[in-house]
TrEMBL record:
PANTHER family: MAJOR FACILITATOR SUPERFAMILY (MFS) PROFILE DOMAIN-CONTAINING PROTEIN, PTHR23542. It comes from Streptomyces pratensis (strain ATCC 33331 / IAF-45CD). This is Major facilitator superfamily MFS_1. Keywords: Membrane, Transmembrane, Transmembrane helix. InterPro entries: MFS, MFS_trans_sf. The lineage of its organism: Bacteria, Bacillati, Actinomycetota, Actinomycetes, Kitasatosporales. The chain crosses the membrane at residues 21-46, 52-75, 87-108, 114-137, 158-176, 222-244, 256-276, 283-305, 311-328, 376-395. One of its GO terms (molecular function) is transmembrane transporter activity. SUPFAM superfamilies: MFS general substrate transporter.
Length: 402
């Protein structure tokens, strides 16, 4: 029996915020989730200093693509490591040194090839860290509080996307691009300091766990919705955020308001997650049904946004979009966690981050290739709904008979 199940039976009042591990996990997760939001502005700043804005944008794409490409493999290494705590120490320490090296290479304007390769390594090595923080949460949280715990996991992600750009914007006032990348390096020290000690503990480890490999992640058909939905939500989020600089001028507002609306998206997401965390236990629907309905809510706001013709309507639909997006992230995490064995948790959660990145890339491609922002957003919403609906339908028998 699962160790947390034993504790659940003996503790009539499950606790989350007052447990000794919670704040350590929360701080470690904040550091794990803030790095990528910081990278967007920090790498543009460094690349612009080295060779111009286009090179900075290129570094951002290299960082995002490489991180998404290696996240699942990195997560698998952590899951299968004989000493995962030691492996995480190696990953975080090496990532810190690589980011420091990147800052130094950029400061001295060394070869762009060297800087590009170092940027790729900076993203590739710690690719499984965001997924690791989620698997640690599963290991320690009382099963009766799983919905609340995953809700706060989603809030940490949103907080990272709010705070990351703010931190870099403040550091940009120094006029020293290397400071911004050095700040990214520091986040890995935070991960190791707070999250590292929680890795590889015996809490939540089944004493009768099988010693054989659990098989491929994709061999668990009931996990497909939680994975494919990550592509769909990546498409939706990127579609909404990327379309704002076009939608706002069309509505008669300045594109400079885009940043404020992205913050609104994150803030309403936090509000939506808090509401879901309080009401999830009273919703009489299977978690995969909940997630599909919530995704439909997200995509409905994307369609409405495509036809918005005033700044107020753009703001309203962006806010509603966030209210659905973050609870949906909670639901797809719960769905995946329930569908795979603990030995695949870090790999599975890392795959979700990677597939979110894939969805973002697909959405960016549609926005670039399809003429007109309205048509592009409709195509994004339609394709996202199609792949999720087909996936949910394909495995519905396995899900409801599991």
């Amino acid at each position: 029996m699962h160790a947390t199940s034993l504790r659940a039976g003996s503790d009539p009042k499950p606790k989350l915020f007052t447990t000794p591990w919670w704040w350590r996990w929360a701080l470690g997760t904040c550091f794990a989730r803030i790095t990528e939001p910081m990278a967007t502005l920090a790498l543009i700043s460094l690349g612009t200093f080295v060779s111009g804005y286009s090179y900075g944008a290129f570094l951002v794409s290299v960082y995002a693509f490489t991180g998404a490409l290696t996240a699942t493999t990195s997560g698998k290494l952590i899951d299968r490591a004989a000493r995962p705590r030691r492996l995480v120490l190696i990953m975080t320490s090496s990532s810190f040194l690589l980011h420091v090296a990147l800052a130094a290479f950029g400061t001295f304007r060394l070869s762009t090839v060297l800087i590009t390769v170092t940027t790729a390594l900076c993203a590739a090595l710690p690719g499984g860290i965001p997924g690791l923080s989620r698997s640690v949460l599963v290991r320690y949280a009382d099963p009766r509080l799983r919905n609340l715990a995953f809700s706060w996991d989603s809030i940490m992600t949103e907080a990272g996307w709010i705070l990351g750009p703010v931190v870099i914007a403040g550091l940009a006032l120094t006029g020293l691009p290397w400071v911004e990348v050095a700040a990214m390096a520091v986040t890995f020290l935070g991960v190791q300091l707070f999250l590292g000690p929680l890795v590889g503990g015996d809490k939540g480890t089944p004493p009768d766990a099988a010693t054989t490999a659990p098989g491929s992640l994709w061999s668990y058909r009931t996990a497909w919705p939680g994975l494919v939905d990550s592509v769909s939500i990546g498409m939706a989020v990127t579609g909404v955020v990327s379309a704002l600089p076009v939608l706002l001028p069309r509505a008669g507002a300045s594109p400079a308001w885009s940043g404020i609306l992205v913050s609104l998206l994150a803030a309403t997401g936090i509000a939506g997650t808090l509401v879901y965390g309080k009401t999830a236990g009273r919703i009489p629907l299977h978690i995969t049904v909940q997630s599909l309905l919530t995704l439909i809510g997200v995509l409905t706001t994307v369609v409405a946004l495509a036809f918005s013709d005033s700044a107020l309507s753009v703001a309203v639909w962006v806010g509603l979009s966030g209210f659905f997006i973050t609870p949906f992230n909670t639901q797809r995490s719960i769905s995946l966690e329930a569908s795979i064995p603990p030995a695949l948790h870090t790999q599975g959660f890392s795959a979700q981050f990677a597939l979110f990145g894939l969805g973002s890339a697909i959405s960016a491609g549609m926005l670039a290739l399809i003429s007109g922002v309205t048509a592009a957003l409709l195509a994004i919403a339609g394709f996202a709904l199609l792949i999720s609906a087909v996936t949910h339908g394909a495995v519905r028998k396995e899900i409801f008979t599991a």
